[in-house]
Amino acid sequence: MRPALTLLSCEIFSGEYKNAIPASIGIEVFHNFTLLHDDIMDNAPLRRAMPAVHKKWNADVAILAGDAMFVEACRLIISTDIESAASKKVTDLFLKTAMQVCEGQQWDMTYQSRDHVSIKEYLTMIELKTSALLACALKTGAIIAGASTENADLIYEFGKNIGLAFQLHDDILDVYGDKSKFGKEMGGDIVANKKTFLLLKAFELASDHARKELTLWLHKTSFNDSGKINAVKNIYDSFRVKEHAEEEISLYYKKAMQNLDDIEFPEAEKESLRVFAQKLMVREM
Amino acid sequence: MRPALTLLSCEIFSGEYKNAIPASIGIEVFHNFTLLHDDIMDNAPLRRAMPAVHKKWNADVAILAGDAMFVEACRLIISTDIESAASKKVTDLFLKTAMQVCEGQQWDMTYQSRDHVSIKEYLTMIELKTSALLACALKTGAIIAGASTENADLIYEFGKNIGLAFQLHDDILDVYGDKSKFGKEMGGDIVANKKTFLLLKAFELASDHARKELTLWLHKTSFNDSGKINAVKNIYDSFRVKEHAEEEISLYYKKAMQNLDDIEFPEAEKESLRVFAQKLMVREM
Q1: Is A86 at the interface with chain B, CB within 8 A?
Q2: Cα gap B43→B57, rounded to integer Å
Q3: Among 2.10.70.10, 2.130.10.10, 2.40.50.140, 1.10.600.10, what is the CATH number of A1-126+136-146?
Q4: CB proximity B74 to A under 8 Å
Q5: Which residues of B touch A99 (CB under 8 A)?
Q6: Residue in B41, B63, B109 closest to A41 by CB
Q7: pTM of the shown model
Q8: Distance between CA A50 and CA A55 in Å, rounded?
């Protein structure tokens, strides 16, 4: 998805998409490097339905292969053959984003072992960990095409808002998605006590009684998975947490559409980005 | 040591050392990033006589802090404010070196679990893992100073050869150094079955009988440390392994001095690099 967005953005701003190929691959290699290291930290056994690198080989191999992929990502980014001021902008944006992704991952780990996380903190975390790279992919294409600073910043904001909407939609899908269509077990976030928007919102809205029940489930070390999922889901439903998440998604989606409206390029060109945004939002429930 | 070499090299080639400060720090931050990740892989408890990051906090923190340091190292390297062709050379050299260091670390890990490693393989491994960054530090200063390609390549070769001599000297110090002066327990490489130049040379030169004895010690899972150290050291002594290592060091040292002779700059300027090389070689035995 990310490399396609870089090329698309480059084309939309009347650039030659071929100029954006090395950078688009660099962004994808960078993303995969973070997956290798994240999977170690999350002790995730699978990645794309295959054994994760640290499971198939070992953690040392996953650390070092990740490092090497990061070097290769940097090499691809700086190999972008455009005039030097634009090239510097691409590299600066990439490194700034890379640091944000590291920061987001650190917050994610910190929040996992912390009792209270505010919704604001959660949104900042997913903005750093997920949205920043999506926004970077789009802005990179715009810079390579020679778009104005204003337009490049607007497409960055579009990416950031769509990324946030995407991640919140993911939180909903985990609980309310259709297993057969979504392709993985539902309720994984609930079982793992992941501090999603739904859980944090439930803590915010729930009655004292329901909050105590939630806390009990979070601290239980022995439980039946579907029992826990159903109990937590009932609390979510009682306090209309899903609807609140949908409102939040709608807010970010509208902001993203406004960003598109504000960009100065022909209406026809914006259509492909609108289609992309819509597709992200109608993944199967 | 590395940042000082970058600044020194820049000055020797009549550059303004201040221009080399960001890159010199970048190289040092990169080096420290590799230490964080290496210490996880080697399960090393200490670093500079303090708890290693993965021990003081945990492996996740060490992975992520290392990643962030790598991003910061890249940022420092590309922030070198010189004309764009030289700046590209500095970045290209840095990323090429970063990949070599990763490759060297992978070989180091691979060799640890492999029975037979040739001396040639060992030398290639330490060239990648240790010498390349030293050579890179020197060449970076030369490029920033605007040295000719020939001179920049010669100072790179000087760094590579001195780096190899340095690492082989380290192998000797571990076995034959003076504990009170060297500041750590002697024979650690022997206890840990580290495939040093001494061990590989011993396998090459030893009689069938001595080779069998060495192999026995390598596979023993329960032993008295000083017993193992003395037994292996006796085999080293019988086959004059230390002298062979010293000859190899002398060879690289002479090559390095030849590299200096070939560089076209005033004799007086070379003196500081000669002094540096000598200091590296006369660390306490």
Answers
A1: no
A2: 13
A3: 1.10.600.10
A4: yes
A5: 68, 71-72, 75
A6: B63
A7: 0.92
A8: 10
* A113 CB within 8 Å of a chain B CB: no
The answer to whether the A1-126+136-146 and A148-285 domains have the same CATH topology is yes
Q: By CA distance, what is B88's nearest residue in A? A: A78
B103 at interface of A, judged by CB pairs closer than 8 A: yes
In sequence order, the 6+-apart residues with CB closer than 8 A to the CB of A78 are A87, A91, B78, B88, B91, B92, B95
CATH 1.10.600.10 fits B1-118, yes or no: yes
Note whether B105 contacts A: Cβ–Cβ < 8 A. Answer: yes
Would you list the domain boundaries of chain A?
Answer: 1-126+136-146, 148-285
Give the pair of three-digit tokens for residue A96.
């700034």
Task: Give, in words, the CATH class of A148-285.
Answer: mainly alpha
CA-based nearest residue in chain A for residue B41: A60
Q: Check if A63 contacts B (Cβ < 8 Å).
A: yes
* Reported ipTM: 0.90
Residue written as token pair 């991952």? A105
Sign of CA dihedral B271, B272, B277, B282: positive
Type of residue found at B139:
K
3-class secondary-structure state, position B50:
strand
> Tens digit of pLDDT for each residue in A38-97?
999 988 888 988 999 999 999 999 999 999 999 999 999 999 988 888 999 999 999 999
The string of pLDDT tens digits covering residues B87-129 is 999 999 999 999 999 999 999 999 988 888 999 999 999 999 9
Q: Smallest CA–CA separation between B67 and chain A, in Å?
A: 7
Range of lowest pLDDT (A57-66, A99-108, B175-184): B175-184
